[in-house]
């Protein structure tokens, strides 16, 4: 290959409703690597882009939540397969975004691929783990089943542009929710490229929608959006998280707070940090065992009763 | 309509309960006056008789109670689960022993029929403590990891519709998991919680583990906002629930909210009509309809609408409204003048917006707060009475033609707490139950409760579950 060949740049675009639009605002912003070198222009999403993404996510919810858990697992596994084939691209993008050596970036991408596999396996198991029959004191069949909450807004972590991203998207959609994802503001390129992988993984359009831009500009209308059911605040700092949680109360969204340490040494509570997913300095460790809490955070429990017809002294009542 | 049978009065005796003329707040194991000395009266809604005068907690009392709970937390949470369990078993047993007394007390203070307090509320209260008692030493096996830790001090605010049962739903799981509690009962029904404080003393529960603050909304708000509260549990209106969600934003307080509802009770054309009618009655007239999971919207398939409504009106005409202490009474008093005014206003709105009102023919007592069983036909989805929670004995009737239409109408609500399905076709039950966005679905039954069965809402009916293994999560430091 000739050294003086001019390479073809990629136009990074949003991923909404299975398509790749530019921001309706026509805005872009410069994305640089960790040393400040220009990498690409990314779309700077507007509140209209956010609303369009909600419409797409809502439209996709019926089909995706109604798909069999097995089918969702197959598709999540397919995402892992597609990523495996495009690993070089993501290693390069993650290395640029996070200032990692090629080998460290490769480890991150490997972990992200494995995370898809982990959650692919969860789709048809979480229902048995968190649901089940309840032994009520009466002649009733009584069954609790987890169901997806609906449309979930996800503020992807700001630092971990790919492993963190995958770690917050996969559990949301594994259970049948649909997602509007706000990529890391400074490092959105791996997220926008992930959209291209999702589009070729049999994932129905609208199940995952990916927006890039200023986190607070996109998140604010989503937090108060009446057709959004839940919000994952992982990528918000403390001030923004509080503001969004207040807005989210308008329609009682389910809120997953940022994974900061819950230690409050000055208080008597002494409540330990909930899991190993938080380092001692309070930042997230995305390589830790994810557990199930990101799955259960966006699940509702439905309990169905039906009489069984008890056998009474006078004989059968069924 | 003339009654088929005349019934002689059969009142339950009041003498089993001894209500003191005044009660204090229960803080750190002692009854104590409010810091500012304020008191308020609690009346019997069926007669407007003043039952007692109770201390009215303010912010200073909230602080004192939270401090007591904090102090008690260290030892209580360090107790072996098996010991905590035995305290809860003791409490459950004492509730059973004193259930007649508590049933009469609850009926006096709340206005609901003795038939309900005796046969529903109290048995469920005892069962709830029994159920969670057994969890206290089995938390390692509950699916929340090894040695799950309690959160700390739980601030709990409960409503007036099931005063003692809501207390049980809050306190039993909190104590089983090793938390300590500050609980505020509703201002119109403070007495059973204060009797429960006495039960804690009889059970020898360590001081400060349970604190009861009687008072108004300001005390509840102060409790929710207190910076040393780790867990907030609230049952009540959606408006207050949203205010709480805003209040705790940015804190590390864990929150569960059990809020309003506008449950759809769907009757298909193949449903057994007599059973469905009983279910409709249970759904909306149990506890005078003052139930968050009430089946307050009847969705009836067009082809059987007339038949179902005729049978329903016939049945409603036989309901006995009156003295809640009478063992034959089906419909008791509305809990407060304020609630009666709200129900009355919403019913008037129903008429004004064009729905057709039908009221069961029954005489209302001259004293107290009463509202006759009422249903509205010609209701559209846009009507206020089809959208807003009335929290009273008022049923809004809508019709549908196809199962899809029934599901769409049922889900057309900001709420998502309960729903009912009446049909003989199994696949239809399961398909419809799957599509309903509601936390509890009763098929061919309604308003059934059990401590093992998780309860709670979708959407603006709140979040978190109470009851069952699921109910433990709200009080454990797990996510």
UniProtKB/TrEMBL annotation, chain A:
One of its GO terms (molecular function) is oxidoreductase activity. The keyword Oxidoreductase applies. The keyword Phosphoprotein does not apply. It comes from the Bacteria. Keywords: Oxidoreductase. Residues 260-289 are annotated as: Disordered. Residues 24-255 form the Aldehyde dehydrogenase domain. InterPro entries: Ald_DH/histidinol_DH, Ald_DH_N, Aldehyde_DH_dom. This is Aldehyde dehydrogenase family protein.
UniProtKB/TrEMBL annotation, chain B:
It holds the Pfam family Aldedh. The keyword Oxidoreductase applies. Gene3D superfamilies: Aldehyde Dehydrogenase, Chain A, domain 1 (3.40.605.10), Aldehyde Dehydrogenase, Chain A, domain 2 (3.40.309.10). Residues 32-478 form the Aldehyde dehydrogenase domain. Keywords: Oxidoreductase. SUPFAM superfamilies: ALDH-like. GO terms for molecular function: oxidoreductase activity, acting on the aldehyde or oxo group of donors, NAD or NADP as acceptor. Belongs to the aldehyde dehydrogenase family. This is Aldehyde dehydrogenase (Acceptor). It comes from Streptomyces atratus.
């Amino acid at each position: 290959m000739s050294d003086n060949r001019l390479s073809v740049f990629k136009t990074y675009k949003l991923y909404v409703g299975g398509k790749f639009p530019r921001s309706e605002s026509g805005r872009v912003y410069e994305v640089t690597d960790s040393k400040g070198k220009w990498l690409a222009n990314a779309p700077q999403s507007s509140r209209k882009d956010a609303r369009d993404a909600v419409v797409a996510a809502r439209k996709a919810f019926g089909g995706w939540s109604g798909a069999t858990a097995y089918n969702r697992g197959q598709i999540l596994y397919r995402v892992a397969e597609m990523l495996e084939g495009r690993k070089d691209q993501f290693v390069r993008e993650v290395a640029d975004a996070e200032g990692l050596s090629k080998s460290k970036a490769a480890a991150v991408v490997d972990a992200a691929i494995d995370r898809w596999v982990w959650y692919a396996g969860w789709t048809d198991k979480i229902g048995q783990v968190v649901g089940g029959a309840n032994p009520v004191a009466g002649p009733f069949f009584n069954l609790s089943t987890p169901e997806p909450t609906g449309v979930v807004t996800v503020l992807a972590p700001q630092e971990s542009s790919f492993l963190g991203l995958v770690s917050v998207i996969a559990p949301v959609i594994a259970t049948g929710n649909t997602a509007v994802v706000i990529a890391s503001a400074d490092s959105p390129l791996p997220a926008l490229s992930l959209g291209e992988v999702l589009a070729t993984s049999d994932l129905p359009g609208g199940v995952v929608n990916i927006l890039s831009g200023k986190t607070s500009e996109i998140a604010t209308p989503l937090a108060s959006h009446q057709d959004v059911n839940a919000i994952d605040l992982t990528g918000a700092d403390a001030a923004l998280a509080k503001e969004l949680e207040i807005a989210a109360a308008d329609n009682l969204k389910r809120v997953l707070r940022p994974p900061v340490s819950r230690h409050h040494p000055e208080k008597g509570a002494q409540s330990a940090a909930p899991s190993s997913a938080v380092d001692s300095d309070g930042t997230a460790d995305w390589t830790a065992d994810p557990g199930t809490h990101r799955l259960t955070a966006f699940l509702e429990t439905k309990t169905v009763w039906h009489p069984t017809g008890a056998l009474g002294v006078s004989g059968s009542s069924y | 309509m003339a009654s088929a049978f005349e019934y002689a009065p059969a009142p339950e005796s009041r003498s089993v309960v001894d209500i003191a003329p005044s009660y204090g707040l229960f803080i750190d194991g002692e009854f104590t006056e409010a810091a500012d000395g304020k008191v308020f009266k609690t009346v019997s809604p069926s007669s407007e008789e003043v039952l007692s005068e109770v201390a009215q907690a303010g912010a200073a009392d909230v602080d004192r109670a939270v401090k007591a709970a904090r102090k008690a937390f260290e030892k209580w949470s360090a107790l072996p689960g098996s010991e905590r369990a035995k305290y809860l078993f003791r409490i459950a047993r004492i509730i059973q022993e004193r259930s007649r007394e508590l049933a009469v007390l609850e009926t006096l203070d709340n206005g609901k029929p003795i038939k309900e307090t005796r046969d529903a509320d109290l048995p469920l209260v005892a069962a709830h403590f029994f159920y969670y008692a057994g969890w206290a030493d089995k938390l390692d096996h509950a699916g929340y990891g090894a040695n799950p830790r309690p959160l700390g001090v739980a601030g709990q605010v409960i409503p007036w519709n099931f005063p003692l049962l809501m207390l049980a739903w809050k306190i039993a799981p909190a104590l089983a998991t090793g938390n300590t509690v500050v609980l505020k009962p509703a201002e119109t029904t403070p007495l059973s919680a204060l009797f429960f404080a006495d039960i804690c003393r009889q059970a020898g529960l360590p001081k400060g583990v349970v604190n009861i603050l009687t008072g108004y909304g300001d005390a509840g708000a102060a409790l929710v906002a207190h910076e040393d509260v780790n867990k907030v549990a609230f049952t009540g209106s959606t408006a207050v629930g949203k205010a709480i969600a805003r209040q705790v934003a940015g804190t590390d307080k864990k929150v569960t909210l059990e809020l309003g509802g506008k449950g759809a009770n769907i009757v298909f054309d193949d449903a057994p009509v007599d059973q469905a009618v009983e279910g409709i009655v249970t759904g909306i007239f149990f506890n005078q309809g003052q139930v968050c999971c009430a089946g307050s919207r009847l969705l009836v398939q067009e082809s059987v609408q007339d038949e179902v409504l005729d049978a329903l009106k016939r049945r409603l005409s036989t309901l006995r409204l009156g003295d809640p202490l009478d063992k034959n009474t089906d419909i008791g008093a509305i809990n407060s003048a304020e609630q009666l005014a709200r129900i009355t206003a919403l019913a008037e709105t129903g008429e004004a917006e064009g729905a057709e009102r039908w009221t069961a023919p029954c005489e209302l007592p001259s004293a107290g707060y009463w509202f006759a069983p009422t249903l509205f036909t010609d209701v559209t989805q846009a009507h206020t009475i089809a959208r807003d929670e009335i929290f009273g004995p008022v049923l809004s009737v809508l019709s549908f033609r196809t199962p899809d239409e029934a599901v769409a109408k049922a889900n057309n609500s900001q709420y998502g707490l309960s729903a009912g399905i009446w049909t003989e076709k199994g696949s239809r039950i399961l398909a419809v139950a799957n599509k309903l966005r509601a936390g509890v679905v009763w098929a061919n039954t309604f308003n059934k409760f059990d401590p093992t069965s998780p309860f709670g809402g979708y959407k603006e009916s709140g979040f978190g579950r109470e009851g069952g293994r699921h109910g433990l999560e709200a009080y454990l430091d797990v996510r």
